[in-house]
């Protein structure tokens, strides 16, 4: 059966992952519109920048001479150096049109050659050549879609004789979105791990540690040691479980006290109980030898014979210096419970204790068999 700890961990991680994926999806959708707006702004800016460079490089007005486009005395038709230079500065595709026809361009067709002589799309021709307006938006450029900017070229007389174009590939948009999503994903992953660790620490401290203490207390009860109540600091529901457990301990302690009084008035019953224990194999011969040295009736009130035998058996199986924590882990009891029995054995001369000092932290008390 899957543990509660694993179920909570899976639910926590699943919720955080779902939240992160949803956030990235919404962010990607939101950024798409923002990137389109940014691309349009770039197109407008690049149109203005290129126009200024062309005016300073080639002074004079736009004109048509012998079927070619001129700027002042400089021929622009087939002037690939100009469009290549502007393309390098802006990162855009750049084209100069004479009427509707490309006469200088960095745009390339499916054959990889410059698309000289190809025509502008009909909707752009309507807006720029006929209506005399600047076109900003998506357009089909030699079979591919770009974020574009088109501006009319006017002669000295004010007639529209051509178009100047810059285009931003959709790859630019995708690169911006991808880089942004990767950045946010990295930040989101770091925050997810941090939140998961904090939540897990909180759950461990508030739920699992208190439940573990209650479980150890239940094992103490099963072995007959009922003198110690459990104390946990946790949520209200676990606190109520602690109260119910301690009330049960008090009731069993009261019943045990009455039984001890009866046993004290008739010691033969105690010897009979020890014989029954031996008959069922609860104490080994080696454990019995220590119990005989101490005396069956030598256990103080609150120490249980079966628990005593369990601890002595563990000590005999591990004949080395041990801390109360190590013994408690070995016999599956609480450290406080085990310490009572170890201190009793120390008082009776079966064990001695020493303080072990480490480089950091508090000293550890070790119990050494004699």
Automatic annotation (TrEMBL):
<protein>
    <recommendedName>
        <fullName>histidine kinase</fullName>
        <ecNumber>2.7.13.3</ecNumber>
    </recommendedName>
</protein>
<dbReference type="InterPro" id="IPR033463">
    <property type="entry name" value="sCache_3"/>
</dbReference>
<keyword id="KW-0418">Kinase</keyword>
<feature type="domain" description="HAMP">
    <location>
        <begin position="205"/>
        <end position="257"/>
    </location>
</feature>
<dbReference type="GO" id="GO:0005886">
    <property type="term" value="C:plasma membrane"/>
</dbReference>
<keyword id="KW-1133">Transmembrane helix</keyword>
<keyword id="KW-0812">Transmembrane</keyword>
<feature type="transmembrane region" description="Helical">
    <location>
        <begin position="181"/>
        <end position="203"/>
    </location>
</feature>
<dbReference type="InterPro" id="IPR029151">
    <property type="entry name" value="Sensor-like_sf"/>
</dbReference>
<dbReference type="GO" id="GO:0000155">
    <property type="term" value="F:phosphorelay sensor kinase activity"/>
</dbReference>
<dbReference type="InterPro" id="IPR036390">
    <property type="entry name" value="WH_DNA-bd_sf"/>
</dbReference>
<dbReference type="InterPro" id="IPR036388">
    <property type="entry name" value="WH-like_DNA-bd_sf"/>
</dbReference>
<keyword id="KW-0472">Membrane</keyword>
<dbReference type="InterPro" id="IPR050398">
    <property type="entry name" value="HssS/ArlS-like"/>
</dbReference>
<dbReference type="Pfam" id="PF17202">
    <property type="entry name" value="sCache_3_3"/>
</dbReference>
<keyword id="KW-0808">Transferase</keyword>
<keyword id="KW-1003">Cell membrane</keyword>
<feature type="transmembrane region" description="Helical">
    <location>
        <begin position="9"/>
        <end position="31"/>
    </location>
</feature>
<dbReference type="InterPro" id="IPR011991">
    <property type="entry name" value="ArsR-like_HTH"/>
</dbReference>
<keyword id="KW-0597">Phosphoprotein</keyword>
<dbReference type="InterPro" id="IPR003660">
    <property type="entry name" value="HAMP_dom"/>
</dbReference>
<dbReference type="Pfam" id="PF00672">
    <property type="entry name" value="HAMP"/>
</dbReference>
């Amino acid at each position: 059966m899957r543990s509660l700890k694993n179920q909570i961990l899976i639910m926590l991680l699943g919720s955080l992952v779902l939240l992160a994926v949803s956030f990235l999806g919404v962010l990607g959708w939101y950024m798409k519109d923002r990137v389109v707006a940014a691309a349009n702004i770039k197109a407008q800016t690049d149109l203005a920048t290129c126009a200024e460079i062309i005016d300073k490089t080639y002074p004079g007005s736009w004109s048509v001479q012998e079927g070619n486009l001129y700027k002042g005395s400089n021929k622009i038709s087939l002037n690939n150096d100009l469009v290549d230079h502007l393309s390098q500065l802006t990162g855009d595709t750049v084209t100069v049109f004479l009427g509707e026809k490309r006469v200088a361009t960095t745009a390339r067709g499916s054959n990889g050659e410059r698309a000289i002589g190809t025509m502008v799309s009909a909707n752009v021709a309507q807006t720029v050549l006929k209506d005399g307006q600047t076109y900003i938006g998506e357009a089909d450029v030699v079979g591919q879609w770009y974020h574009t900017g088109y501006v009319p070229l006017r002669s000295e007389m004010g007639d529209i004789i051509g178009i100047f174009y810059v285009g931003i590939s959709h790859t630019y948009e995708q690169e911006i979105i991808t880089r942004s999503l990767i950045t946010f994903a990295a930040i989101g992953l770091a925050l997810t791990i941090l939140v998961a660790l904090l939540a897990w620490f909180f759950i461990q401290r508030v739920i699992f540690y208190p439940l573990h203490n209650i479980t150890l207390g239940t094992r103490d009860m099963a072995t007959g040691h009922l003198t110690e109540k459990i104390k946990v600091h946790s949520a209200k529901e676990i606190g109520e479980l602690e109260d119910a457990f301690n009330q049960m301990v008090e009731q069993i302690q009261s019943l045990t006290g009455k039984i001890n009084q009866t046993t004290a008035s008739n010691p033969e019953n105690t010897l009979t109980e020890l014989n029954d224990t031996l008959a069922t194999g609860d104490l080994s011969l080696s454990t019995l030898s220590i119990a005989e040295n101490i005396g069956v009736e030598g256990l103080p009130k609150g120490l249980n014979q079966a628990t005593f035998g369990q601890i002595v058996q563990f000590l005999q199986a591990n004949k080395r210096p041990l801390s109360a924590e190590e013994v408690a882990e070995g016999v599956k009891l609480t450290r406080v419970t085990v310490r009572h029995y170890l201190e009793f054995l120390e008082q009776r001369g079966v064990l001695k204790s020493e303080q072990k000092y480490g480089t950091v932290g508090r000293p550890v008390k070790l119990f050494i068999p004699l």
